[in-house]
Amino acid sequence: MRRSKFFMPTLKEIPAEAQIPSHRLMLRAGMVRQTAAGIYSWLPMGYRVLKKIEQIVREEMDATGAQEILMPTIQPAELWRESGRYDDYGKEMLRITDRHGRDMLYGPTNEEQITDIFRKTVRSYRDLPKLLYHIQWKFRDEVRPRFGVMRGREFLMKDSYSFDLDYESARRSYNKMFVSYLRTFARMGLTPIPMAADSGAIGGDMSHEFIILADTGESAVYCDKAWFNTDPLSLDIDFDADLQSIVDRWTELYAAADEKHDPATCPVDADQLYTGRGIEVGHIFNFGTKYSKSMGATVSNSEGQEVPVEMGSYGIGVSRLVGAIIEASHDAVGIIWPPSVAPFQVGLINLRAGDAGCDAVCQQLYDGLAAANIETLYDDRDERAGVKFAEMDLIGLPWQIAVGPRGVKAGTVEIKQRGGEREEVPAESALARLT
Ligand code: 5CA
Questions:
Q1: Between the CA atoms of 133, 194, 323 and 23, what dihedral angle is there, to the nearest 10 degrees?
Q2: How far apart are the CA of 249 and the centre of ligand 1, in A?
Q3: In the chain, N or C: fewer CB atoms in 10 Å?
Q4: Using a 6 Å CB cutoff, which residues line ligand 1?
Q5: Model's pTM, two decimal places?
Q6: How far does the centroid of ligand 1 lie from the alpha carbon of residue 151, in Å?
Q7: Three-state DSSP class for 143?
Q8: What DSSP character marks residue 211?
Q9: What are 172-229's pLDDT values in tens digits?
Q10: What is the pLDDT confidence band of residue 258, given thresholds at 50, 70 and 90?
Q11: CA angle 224–177–173, rounded 5-degree value
Q12: Domains, the chain, ranges and CATH?
């Protein structure tokens, strides 16, 4: 993509309304624009990252055997009256009336809707277990939307739902999601910490919050420093096997939120205890038969009796992750994208656009990068070098290649990893350095 054609409305000023780095950087880098309080439009730079995150989530869900569906954003109120949550949900639910006077709502989550699909389609224990997911926009009329996409009113969530015949099978489904979450967040360059959680409005008896550490997180977290040495990607995982031993390993280390942490009983020594803040990027729940009982979602078991199905739901804040990753990975001058979610891998900087030599070397590199399938943003504009370098640091692409007249004469270009040192290399070996 040529920068001269790319729609990336950057801001020089630091937006006054933005209180935390990710919000400031997302606005400055032209990733999003606010449409209304807590409601954002995603511009190309932001949307590219959102799609990368979504794709990692999708691949890791598919790896567990979960199947992707797509349910609507607008739901009929009747379903929520059946579960009893229509009144419970209160003002956070955006309620709508259609032209026939029917009560509708913009879904804040989808337990009722999926339970309705299930009860109309699945009859027998032979069809279990089932794991379904979708990636869809949600709306929660938060009292205080803030921190940009981190606490929005409209936000993108991956929510999956499991259906099992009994508790033992439900535990296995829960563990699949647990382990897939470890992998999902690790692939985004994050260190996920699962913490036992209360299940709140969702209800249920088995629940974990997945948090990542960041100074601007909404909740205080106390955890064993050994968490920093965990690497879920080193695990060899068979999703058909019982994953309990991995779940046990990842829940053994101490981690607790403010409400649950008591210095008097904390098992971790003071010098081994990390005290910081965390951002919740995912939340998983097993809630047994809460919805299946109230909504009549039953299957016949092997004895021919109708039994309510055991369920769980599992959420990931896909749009929140864009902000959360920036909170976890930035410096004083801008974003530092982990390569797996970077909007482009390389920023190619032409330090003297219009100079025949620079243009030719840039074009050759640009073509070579395209041929190697390396997404590149080519800054071909007639701008000062300082402006171009500053913008590249702001948008945080993993690699920068700078081509200037002096180097062109000497047959070299400058290459730099975001956050690292510049290095001069022969122009023809630049590509090899990246691949
Ligand atoms: N039904 C369950 C699981 S599918 C559920 O809704 N869980 S949740 O409320 O915990 O939300 C799942 C994830 O969505 C959260 O972990 C968080 O990462 C994200 N999320 C929740 N509220 C917001 C919000 N206002 N803005 C951005 N992301 C949010």
A1: 130
A2: 25
A3: C
A4: 109, 111, 140, 142, 151-152, 155, 157, 159, 202, 280-283, 313-315, 317, 319-320
A5: 0.96
A6: 9
A7: coil
A8: E
A9: 999 999 999 999 999 999 999 999 877 555 555 689 999 999 988 988 999 999 999 9
A10: confident
A11: 125
A12: 21-335 (3.30.930.10), 344-434 (3.40.50.800)
Which residue among 140, 283, 284 has the greatest number of ligand 1 atoms within 8 angstroms of its CB, and so is best to mutate? 283
Q: Are 415 and 399 in contact (CB under 8 A)?
A: yes
* Nearest atom in ligand 1 to 160's CA: 4
Nearest to 366 by CA among 374, 102, 167: 374
The helix/strand/coil state of 125 is helix
Burial of 289: CB neighbours in 10 Å, binned 0-12, 13-18, 19+: middle
pLDDT for res 205: 62
Q: What is the largest CA-CA distance in the chain?
A: 83
CB 83 within 8 A of CB 203: no
Check if the beta carbon of residue 38 is closer than 8 Å to that of residue 151: yes
User: For 327-369, how does the pLDDT look when each residue is reduced to its tens digit (9 = 90+)?
Assistant: 999 999 999 999 999 999 999 999 999 999 999 999 999 999 9
**% of the chain residues with pLDDT over 90:** 92
Gyration radius of the chain over CA positions: 24
Residue 338 burial class via C-beta count within 10 angstroms: exposed 0-12, middle 13-18, buried 19 and up: middle
For the segment 7-49, what is each residue's pLDDT rounded down to a tens digit?
Answer: 999 998 888 889 999 999 999 999 999 999 999 999 999 999 9
Q: Can you list the alpha helix ranges (DSSP code H) found in 264-351?
A: 290-295, 318-328
Q: Which helix (H) or strand (E) holds 399?
A: strand 399-403
Taking alpha carbons only, the member of 356, 368, 342 closest to residue 408 is 356
Please say if the pLDDT value at position 110 is more than 90. Answer: yes
